[in-house]
Design brief:
The chain is mostly beta strands and 182 residues long. It has one helix and eight strands, in the order H-E-E-E-E-E-E-E-E. It has one helix at 2-21, and strands at 29-41, 52-62, 67-79, 85-98, 104-121, 124-144, 147-162, 165-181. The chain is elongated, with a radius of gyration of 17 Å.
Length: 182
Amino acid sequence: MKKILSLVAGLMLVSSISFAAAGSTAGEGMFLGLGGGLDFPGYNWWAGTPVGFAGEVFGGYSLDQNAAIQLDLDGAVYSYPNGNGTFDLYILPEFKYTFDNPGFQPYLLAGAGLNLSFDSGGGISTSSGNFAGVAGVGVQFDLGGNASLFVEGKFHMAFVGVSGASDVADDFPFTAGVKFPL
């Protein structure tokens, strides 16, 4: 799985550099962003799992005014009343389609990658890695100079093993942040 993710990340980097070297027109170019918010546990979480804190960092390349590829690092931290905790990290290459509109732009995104989950408590720590997918919607508001404020909601799906059977665990991060050109 690490080799596949490394290959995908490498291809995205080479593609970004290739597109950047080809020249830039309106709407094209590299960008970075970061945001924070809340993460709501969904199906297949422990009973009593609280709402977690969510964060994301991403970088990518706008292919044109509407289409972009980006690599997202989405994280969530959950703290339980008994002192246990969970840290989930999603590494997700994503495709983003933005609907052109003056002042603000709604968008859709989808991707697939890796979910790393780290659990601790009671003197025991465990970790796991699983294939994951994401779908989401959002809206970005122009701040000037190609910078924007975004608000988005995502649906994370981690394909996990529960009691020896394949299953899905999902969560719903809602974040807000800024995106700016490089």
